[in-house]
Amino acid sequence: MAHATDRPGGTEPTTAWPGSPQPLGARHHLGPDGVAGTNFALWAGEAEGVEVCLFDDAGRETRHRLTELTHEIWHGFLPGVAPGQRYGYRVHGRWDPWTGARWNPAKLLLDPYARAVDGGYALPAEVYGHVRDWPQHDLADTVRDERDSAPYVPKGVVVDDRDTWVDDRRPKTPWPDSVLYELHVRGFTKRHPGIPEPLRGTYAGLAHPAALAHLTRLGVTAVELLPVHQFAHEDHLLRRGLRNYWGYNSIGWFAPHAGYSASGTRGQQVGEFKRMVRALHGAGIEVILDVVYNHTAEAGEHGPTLSLRGIDNRGYYRQADGDPRRYADYTGCGNTLHVVRPQTLRLITDSLRYWVQEMGVDGFRFDLAAALARSMHDVDMLSPFLAVIAQDPVLRRVKLIAEPWDIGSGGYQVGAFPPLWTEWNDRYRDTVRDFWRGALPDVRDLGYRLSGSSDLYAWGGRRPYASVNFITAHDGFTLRDLVSYERKHNADNGEDGRDGTDDNRSWNCGAEGETDDAAVLALRRRQLRNLLTTLLLSTGVPMLVAGDELGRTQRGNNNAYCQDNDISWLDWSLLDEPGWRQLCELTARLVRLRRAHPVLRRKAFFSGRAHGPEGLRDVAWFTGRGTEMTEEDWYAPGGTLAMFLSGHGIPQRDARGEPVTDDSFLCVLHAGARPGAFPLPGPPWAETYELVLDTSLEDQSRPPGTVHDAGTEVPLPARAVLLLRAGPLRTPGR
């Protein structure tokens, strides 16, 4: 093993006490003879030696050799090391990139189990394990860089573990009752006028009563936080003066991202995150984390050496077939974690359990989940990752959401994940977008999406709530931009328009971008009401994106991953404008309507069969002429579809075992550019109908409340949704 004195600026390492191989990471406790200290344990399967390096406040480094090796885990106990101590690892071994061996003890490595991280990545040349600027770029990754990276990289922090989580306040909202709200901790709070300036952009800001008040007014049941694991900024962004705003570039899976902490980065971020979760739980809101376990911030073979690459490159990453110098890339980010390997699978599941048991979170949305479900090459729904999750007594009880695709061959897996999992349903997104912009060839697909996507999920015991319905997400246009732009406007990203999808399925309503045309603006607001109403009346689990209810715009940028500025931050002043305030009020009203009516949040798929003495089918479909849909009608071009939901055909029981019944509703969706009239269906469906919602109206603060007799032709405004409550049938003879 090379000694620290073999490198410039090194000091002779001392030897740690033996310690324990369990648990992995740095854990402070009482050691032999009651001596307080910290145990360090690191899996480094094929390494030849490991040093744990401690740093004082002046940046001076003290190295300690770990001599104990148990089941490929290097470990040792350092007496006197207390919470707040900064540390990292230097790992020794062969340098032979041609075989995938990339050990370089000149590079200080972040502990993958670090529970807090202090400092940021600047990514100068010294941070790369190879000579980044080698004249022959195609060979640069094969030449080892001997310069010390310690001054340029963040350090792990030993954390006090005494603040244990109490599990008695979790909302535990059932899936059918859930309404998700995707938000960015920094972007949601950065410009909120009710949050004190020092707390904006932080976990404490999201826990502030002003932030909680908006969430509770909307009525959402869970926040889905964009990545809060410690992440790094990519070199190409830093060179352009930009930053990774979204955070899909993880490097520490146990550490809350330090940049979102108002209280400090020497372990204080852990307590602040826990207090945020407790505050959200106190408001009845679950916390779901968007997690990135498919790749890391170390990128491809020309990327920096920050953690796993220097610990055991071949043990943690998938190598390309026949060329272990390079990486298999199913993620588009340069590398893919090798989840089939036990140590990688353990890292992921240990991290997940930590966030549930010790940080209090309620579930996870897995970025590019298909990459995690790959066995050796192909996506496999019996893969080790899915099998471990299915039997884990902690993880199988929390909410599990898959982004069911990656960029590799066979990576599109919508509808294929097993029971326990829900999925982002992009088929729903595309269909609803196409319907309201007048681009659907017929309404077959719309019928499936409105009723829970049984064509995708009615197998293996899966239920309608397997479908997370969404129209927008962080990736793509905001809802306002969806009706304001027909092409992306990503010049601020500095990538010459190469980034971001060109398949936006958007319609600008007659003018590209911002306009003063009153008619265009009115149509856009109507389209927003149509989209939100469709989403919140559909069977499945709706997901809103923070700010869509306010009319947030990214000025046409459909890939704002690097825009940590007012392009991405929520503009709360929009609530001062009557039109946007009304949109927010409509969103809250739709959420309340959904919560009040179990027929809108069914636990089972529709059967299409008659139920009860009335002989009503649980769902019925009507054309724009008011007639029941025939097989031919489903295939015919059409911009109108009506859905009757029977409140007497709900196949579920309440807590006392009694049948659940509800009002029945008729929902008419009309995407046509011209107004019309819709004949209301008579018995056995209803005798009368009360108009509950008409999205053609700007002011939705007062429900219309108009009652129509069956058979009446109700006015059907252009591009609008009508929701009508069906009145009871009259008893014969009365």
UniProtKB/TrEMBL annotation:
<dbReference type="InterPro" id="IPR017853">
    <property type="entry name" value="GH"/>
</dbReference>
<feature type="domain" description="Glycosyl hydrolase family 13 catalytic">
    <location>
        <begin position="182"/>
        <end position="594"/>
    </location>
</feature>
<dbReference type="InterPro" id="IPR013780">
    <property type="entry name" value="Glyco_hydro_b"/>
</dbReference>
<dbReference type="GO" id="GO:0004135">
    <property type="term" value="F:amylo-alpha-1,6-glucosidase activity"/>
</dbReference>
<protein>
    <submittedName>
        <fullName>Glycogen debranching enzyme GlgX</fullName>
    </submittedName>
</protein>
<dbReference type="Pfam" id="PF02922">
    <property type="entry name" value="CBM_48"/>
</dbReference>
<dbReference type="GO" id="GO:0005980">
    <property type="term" value="P:glycogen catabolic process"/>
</dbReference>
<dbReference type="InterPro" id="IPR004193">
    <property type="entry name" value="Glyco_hydro_13_N"/>
</dbReference>
<feature type="region of interest" description="Disordered">
    <location>
        <begin position="1"/>
        <end position="31"/>
    </location>
</feature>
<dbReference type="InterPro" id="IPR013783">
    <property type="entry name" value="Ig-like_fold"/>
</dbReference>
<comment type="similarity">
    <text>Belongs to the glycosyl hydrolase 13 family.</text>
</comment>
<keyword id="KW-0378">Hydrolase</keyword>
<dbReference type="InterPro" id="IPR011837">
    <property type="entry name" value="Glycogen_debranch_GlgX"/>
</dbReference>
<dbReference type="InterPro" id="IPR006047">
    <property type="entry name" value="GH13_cat_dom"/>
</dbReference>
<dbReference type="InterPro" id="IPR044505">
    <property type="entry name" value="GlgX_Isoamylase_N_E_set"/>
</dbReference>
<keyword id="KW-0326">Glycosidase</keyword>
<dbReference type="InterPro" id="IPR014756">
    <property type="entry name" value="Ig_E-set"/>
</dbReference>
